[in-house]
């Protein structure tokens, strides 16, 4: 039985019409009242060249659930703040937002080790945060400030940290990706290839662009999984399976994560000329990754609505403080523009916008 602690506060309100009594009942719970873990059914993955795949049940602990919820909510709020800063012309240039796809990067990170290497494409902010970079450093990078994770020189598309190489602008160009599949299969490389299928390639739906939308089969001789990318538990269990497959020496594996982006392809794309507002709203109402996790936790006594609201408030505060830093931190000085072109190389001169301007490259 759950222990309920009731505090009854009574006060007497005196008014011109006489005395009136009003009671307020406040209910609270101890952390001991919550379940420490719960077991969930998850969607079965579609398989290619695999006799068996990830299981269809998994255990979520309360600690894990709270961590996943806070991480996804932080990424969501960070992206919404990025949208605001871009529209205010504080963030300039390219900016590709990740809201809607949070279960992908958070689920993947939950399944691998910090020592594993992650290479990703230009929709990179969520992965950067999941790999351990702070919101402050990410937003400062977006605004081109010294305190950014690459000192304001990378912007939205080029963010890096230890064992993370994020923001590659070449996203699965067909020749390169199939050459890579072939080499990985021949050499049995321990590589997990991931396609985050958010249903649109820039402004074109996958159905209009691809004769076959079974991307998890595109590796041909590489085994593949098609995963519900809106469910963090599905992503986590599939990624655990894929990582173990690679670590056991069997070679590469391909994962297609079926997900959805709420924003357009980039900030220059309103995202509603090739899809309807109703479609976006339907995904939000039925498949939102944060809402799905929240409902699971509340319905299975892993957390309370009030507790999750407290997390929301703390996340908003963190985002606002990070945005304040990202709009007041100084920009890197021009004389550092040529720094860090190469690692561990003697200094050399780099030509600037014209031949009379020279910058020094310092490792």
Keywords:
363 residues; alpha/beta; globular; 4-stranded mixed β-sheet; 10 helices; 3-stranded mixed β-sheet; disordered N terminus
In short:
This protein has 363 residues and is of the alpha/beta class. It has helices at 62-87, 102-111, 125-130, 135-142, 174-187, 206-209, 232-247, 277-287, 289-299, 305-328; strands at 5-15, 18-28, 37-41, 46-48, 57-61, 118-121, 160-161, 164-168, 192-197, 200-201, 204-205, 224-228, 253-258, 348-351, 358-361.
Describe the structure.
With 363 residues, the protein is of the alpha/beta class. 36% of the residues lie in helices and 21% in strands. It is built from ten helices and 15 strands. It has helices spanning 62-87, 102-111, 125-130, 135-142, 174-187, 206-209, 232-247, 277-287, 289-299, 305-328; strands spanning 5-15, 18-28, 37-41, 46-48, 57-61, 118-121, 160-161, 164-168, 192-197, 200-201, 204-205, 224-228, 253-258, 348-351, 358-361. The strands form six sheets. It has a four-stranded mixed β-sheet with strand order 4-12-13-9, with helices on one face. Strands 6-8-7 form a three-stranded mixed β-sheet, with no helix packed on it. Strands 1-2 form a two-stranded antiparallel sheet. It is globular, with a radius of gyration of 24 Å. The model is unreliable at 1-21 (pLDDT under 50).
């Amino acid at each position: 039985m759950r222990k309920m602690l009731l505090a009854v506060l009574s006060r007497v309100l005196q008014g011109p019409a006489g005395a009136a009594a009003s009671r307020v009942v406040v209910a609270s719970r101890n952390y001991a009242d919550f379940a420490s873990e719960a077991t969930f059914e998850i969607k079965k993955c579609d398989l290619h060249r695999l006799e068996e795949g990830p299981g269809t049940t998994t255990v979520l602990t309360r600690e894990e659930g709270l961590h996943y919820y806070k991480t996804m909510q932080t990424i969501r709020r960070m992206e919404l703040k990025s949208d605001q800063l871009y529209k205010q012309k504080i963030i300039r240039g390219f900016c590709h937002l990740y809201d809607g796809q949070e279960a992908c990067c958070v689920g993947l990170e939950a399944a691998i080790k910090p020592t594993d290497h992650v290479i990703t494409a230009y929709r990179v902010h969520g992965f950067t945060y999941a790999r351990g970079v702070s919101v402050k450093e990410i937003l400062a990078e977006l605004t081109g400030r010294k305190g950014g994770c690459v000192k304001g020189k990378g912007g939205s598309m080029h963010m890096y940290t230890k064992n993370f190489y994020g923001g590659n602008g070449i996203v699965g160009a067909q020749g390169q990706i199939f050459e890579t599949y072939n080499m990985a299969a021949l050499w049995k490389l321990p590589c997990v290839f991931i396609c985050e299928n958010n249903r649109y390639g820039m402004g074109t739906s996958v159905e209009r662009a691809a004769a076959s939308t079974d991307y998890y089969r595109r590796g041909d001789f590489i085994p593949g999984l098609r995963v519900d990318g809106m469910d963090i538990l599905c992503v986590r269990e599939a990624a655990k399976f894929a990582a173990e497959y690679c670590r056991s020496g069997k070679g590469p594996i391909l994962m297609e994560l079926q997900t959805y982006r709420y924003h357009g392809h980039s900030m220059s794309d309103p995202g509603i000329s090739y899809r309807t507002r109703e479609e976006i709203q339907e995904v939000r109402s039925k498949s939102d990754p944060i809402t799905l996790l929240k409902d699971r936790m509340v319905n299975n006594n892993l957390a309370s609505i009030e507790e999750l609201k407290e997390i929301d408030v703390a996340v908003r505060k963190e985002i606002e403080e990070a945005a304040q830093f990202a709009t007041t931190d100084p920009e890197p000085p021009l004389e550092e523009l040529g720094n860090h072109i190469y690692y561990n190389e003697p200094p050399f001169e780099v030509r600037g916008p014209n031949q009379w301007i020279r910058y020094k490259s310092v490792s």
